[in-house]
From TrEMBL:
One of its GO terms (molecular function) is glycosyltransferase activity. It comes from the Bacteria. This is Glycosyl transferase. It holds the Pfam family Glyco_trans_4_2. Keywords: Transferase. PANTHER family: GLYCOSYLTRANSFERASE. The keyword ATP-binding does not apply. InterPro entries: Glyco_trans_1 (IPR001296), Glyco_trans_4-like_N (IPR028098). It comes from Compostibacillus humi. Signal peptide: none annotated.
C-alpha cells in the first residue's frame, strides 16, 4: 500500500522549518510522504535532507498583480493534480486563499492556519471586503481552520467564514527542548534585542526612538537588531550603527546565541500578528519581554510579571517601560525571565500544536 501524501503550501521556507518542523518530522516518522511548495530558501535543503520533496513555487507575498494571483491558483491546481495529495496544509495569507481555492476545486481535503490577518483585512475598506469574499470562497469546503489567537477567530465567525470548522491553537507553539532556559547575563551592560522582519509595522521606528534616548541617558545599554529588511531600512540602520545607536546583525539562522547575551527582548509591533514566535522563543529562553497591547502579543505577557506591555506606536511609553526594566535589580530581571518560561511551558508547548495537527490529519486520511 502506497504511503499517504501531505502537501504543505507556504510563502517562505522559514514558515515551515522554524515553526512546523516538528509536524513534518512526525508525519515522516509515521510513514507519510511530505511535499513542500515554497519559494527556495536555505532551509529547504534541511527539509529535503529530512526526507521531504520540494516543489519550487513563486509567491509574491506583497504583490497585487491580479494576473499573477490567478497564475498561482493555476499552479497550485497543477501540482495537486500531479502529486494527488491526500491532504493539503496551508499557512499564511496567499497559500491559505489560493491553495484553498485550488484544493476545493479538486475535492482534496485541506487545513488552513491563520498566522495573522494582515493589514488589508484588519483595516476597514475595499481590501477588507475583497479579502472576506476570497476567504469565504476559499474556505467553503475546508476541513479545519486553525487560529492562533481569539481575535482572528472572532473576526472570521463574525463574517460567517468556516463556521463550525474553527479551532484555536496556542500560536505555533514553541519547542521547549530547543529553546531552553539560558543563564542570565551579567549586569555590566544591559543588552536589548529586536528580532523581526525590519518594517515599520513591526515597530522598528519606536525601537530606534527608544535606542536614541536610552543610549544617551544610559550609556551602558546596547540595542541589537536581528532580521532582514523587508522595507528600505538598510541605509538608516547602517548610519545608526556608525553613530553607536544600534548594532545590526542582519538575518540569523540561530537566535539562541544572541538571546544568550541579551537581557530583554523588545517587540513593539503593531502588525496584525497571529501569535508572536519571537516572544514565545524569548520567554522559553528565560528572557523578559517588552511588547505591545496587541492580539498575538498580550497573550504571552503578564504585565509586570514576565515583562511589560506598552501601547502601540507609542515611543514615550516604550521608553518609560525600558527605564523601569533597567532600574530593576538583576534578581528581579532574572525572575521575570523564569516567569515567562513557566508561562510558555504551561500554555504554549509546541507538542500541543503537533498533536492537534496529527489528530486532524489522521481523522481525514485514515
Amino acid at each position: 500500500m502506497s504511503p499517504k501524501k501531505v502537501l504543505f503550501l507556504v510563502n517562505h521556507d522559514v514558515v515551515i522549518y522554524n515553526f512546523r518542523r516538528e509536524i513534518v518530522e512526525r508525519l515522516l516518522k509515521d510513514g507519510y510522504e511530505v511535499f513542500i511548495s515554497s519559494p527556495y530558501g536555505e532551509r529547504i535543503d534541511d527539509l529535503v535532507n529530512m526526507g521531504c520533496h520540494f516543489i519550487e513555487t513563486s509567491v509574491e507575498r506583497h504583490g497585487k498583480n491580479i494576473f499573477k494571483e490567478f497564475q498561482l491558483i493555476r499552479y497550485y491546481k497543477r501540482i495537486m493534480k500531479e502529486i494527488k495529495p491526500d491532504i493539503v496544509l496551508t499557512f499564511t495569507i496567499k497559500p491559505n486563499i489560493y491553495g484553498g481555492i485550488a484544493a476545493q476545486k479538486l475535492n482534496i481535503p485541506y487545513i488552513a492556519n491563520i498566522t495573522g490577518l494582515g493589514t488589508a483585512v484588519e483595516n476597514k475598506g475595499l481590501l477588507q471586503k475583497l479579502s472576506i469574499v476570497l476567504y469565504k470562497l476559499a474556505f467553503r469546503k475546508i476541513s479545519t481552520v486553525f487560529f492562533q489567537n481569539s481575535e482572528n477567530q472572532k473576526f472570521f465567525l463574525k463574517h460567517k467564514i468556516a463556521i463550525g470548522k474553527d479551532k484555536l491553537l496556542p500560536g505555533s507553539g514553541v519547542n521547549l527542548d530547543y529553546f531552553t532556559v539560558l543563564e542570565y547575563p551579567s549586569p555590566e551592560t544591559i543588552e536589548f534585542i529586536f528580532i523581526s522582519r525590519i518594517m515599520k509595522e513591526k515597530g522598528i521606528e519606536q525601537y530606534i526612538d527608544a535606542a536614541k534616548y536610552i543610549r544617551k541617558k544610559y550609556p551602558f545599554t546596547r540595542f541589537h537588531i536581528l532580521g532582514f529588511c523587508e522595507e528600505d531600512y538598510e541605509d538608516k540602520l547602517k548610519r545608526l550603527e556608525e553613530e553607536n545607536v544600534v548594532i545590526y546583525h542582519g538575518m540569523q539562522r540561530d537566535i539562541r546565541k544572541f538571546l544568550k547575551n541579551t537581557h530583554c527582548t523588545i517587540h513593539p509591533t503593531y502588525y496584525p500578528e497571529g501569535m508572536s514566535n519571537v516572544l514565545l522563543e524569548s520567554a522559553a529562553s528565560g528572557r523578559p519581554v517588552i511588547t505591545t497591547n496587541r492580539s498575538g502579543c498580550r497573550e504571552i505577557v503578564v504585565d509586570g510579571i514576565n515583562g511589560f506591555i506598552v501601547e502601540p506606536k507609542n515611543s514615550k511609553d516604550l521608553i518609560n517601560k525600558i527605564e523601569r526594566f533597567i532600574k530593576l535589580p538583576k534578581k528581579e530581571k532574572e525572575e521575570m525571565g523564569l516567569a515567562g518560561r513557566a508561562k510558555v511551558e504551561k500554555e504554549f508547548d509546541r507538542k500541543i500544536v503537533v498533536k492537534e495537527y496529527l489528530d486532524q490529519i489522521n481523522k481525514i486520511t485514515r
